[in-house]
Amino acid sequence: MTSVKLNPFVPGCGGYVYDIGVVSSPTSLSVINNVTECIWFVEAEQSDKGIFLKRNRSTNITTCDGHKQLIMTISMGKEVVMETTGKIESPNYPAAYPNSYDYRWNIITSPGTKIQLLFAFFKTQEMFDFVLVYDGSTVNSRLLLEKSGYESMPFTITSSSSELLVRFTSDDDVTFPGFLAVFSTVKAF
């Protein structure tokens, strides 16, 4: 991938971020210049696609994927679960999940254990709405599962450590019931 460095779109507020970078609040320079929006272009290594971020004074983040000519607002959330057993489910399950959604569950158990995640139900929009499971606490951890569509039989994923990250994303089109997953701890050998 070739990276081209661009100057910030507004000094002290936005710019081009690639490889590693920081997206931060406006600096005093942008406040002095009465800037109400900061815009960044982020080149994302994980998918090798560009992500356009636009932050204003609202609580929403607006993104535009390089493959769509559509700007959408994404509800972002993260939940840290520190239990030995439990369940996670897509928003509104068993009703349809919302459009344009990105949510993460970070499951953490005791050291010396692994996490077993049983998907009891799974139905998302094929090729557009995904569940991703990472073997660790970040999206840079090893990817264990990237799944969309329908699965008629329950299936299990097991981590190699005491941390697991589950991420659910939906696009702006069709929605389904999503998923229901139950997790438990097993001893690591």
From TrEMBL:
**Cited CDD domains:** CUB (cd00041)
Which InterPro entries is this protein grouped with? CUB_dom, Sperma_CUB_dom_sf, Spermadhesin-Link_domain
SUPFAM superfamilies cross-referenced by the UniProt entry = Spermadhesin, CUB domain
Question: Which Gene3D superfamilies does the entry link to?
Answer: Spermadhesin, CUB domain (2.60.120.290)
Residues in CUB domain copies: 64-186
Organism superkingdom: Eukaryota
For this UniProt record, the keywords arranged alphabetically read as follows:
Disulfide bond
Q: PANTHER family from the entry?
A: CUBILIN-LIKE PROTEIN, TUMOR NECROSIS FACTOR-INDUCIBLE GENE 6 PROTEIN
Q: What is this protein called?
A: CUB domain-containing protein
List the source organism: Daphnia pulex
